[in-house]
Amino acid sequence: MCGICGFINFKTNLVKNERENLAVAHRMAEKLRHRGPDSWGEWVGEHAVFAHSRLAVIDVENGLQPMKRTVEGHEFVITYNGELYNTNDIRNDLKSHGYEFTTASDTEVLLYAYIHYGEKCAEMLNGIYAFVIWDSRKKRLFAARDFFGIKPFYYSVVDGHFVFASEIKSILCFPGGKKEVNEKAMELYLAFQYSVLEETFFKGIYRLNPGHFLVYENGKTKIQRYFVPNLEPEEMDDAEAEAKLEK
After folding, report:
1. Which residue spans within the chain are E strands per DSSP?
2. pLDDT tens digit string along 66-119?
3. The model scores a pTM over 0.85
4. Which is catalytic among the residues 2, 5, 121, 173?
5. Contact (CB, 8 A) for 118 and 184
6. What is the C-alpha to C-alpha distance for residues 55 and 3, in angstroms, rounded to an integer?
7. Which residue among 30, 37, 38, 78 sits deepest, i.e. has the most Cβ atoms within 10 Å of its Cβ?
């Protein structure tokens, strides 16, 4: 379990106030420290600031985040919470396309998968995850959440900033964040013990639904479902079934 958070602003050069923006990211990440006590990382770019509180499991020495890679002169940065079960398969595929890896972490695999496949990378993933990638070339934020919704992802727009985090309390400590009760979500919860809304109990703070990805570009948000379960049983004879069970 790790904690991710950060914010985007297309109208301001965030590097010019680097110290102030990193201080904000630090306060946000501090709220997530219980999710990842092993290491701490922050990154600031022209329009994006990321922070990460890490629980180190895979490649403890080299898997530090936020992780940055430069491809053809363009910078890509990821902050990620989760575990990919098909890491080796994706890594081998990317190696066949000429990508070279400097760590054994699934974070680097995930980042290169986005660089190579774009939005379609989400369809390749098998695991539990919530992650955000900043594409400096296109000035685009890409985020995705696993299809069971094991890993959390929340977001809001505060004074022109797109703000995201693993937990709502991290967003609430962003400057200008307001604690307002979402009465509609509360009413649904009290009636059904569950709210079907994308909105949370806090007005203006949303959750990314399981099996969906989000793109934030030019001040606009696009959300798309990438995973649809197939509930039809696979047809096979007895020999095929036994062979599959033996694997």
Report:
1. 3-8, 39-44, 48-54, 67-71, 74-84, 127-135, 140-145, 154-158, 161-165, 205-207, 212-217, 220-225
2. 999 999 889 999 999 999 999 999 999 999 999 999 998 999 999 999 999 999
3. yes
4. 2
5. no
6. 8
7. 78
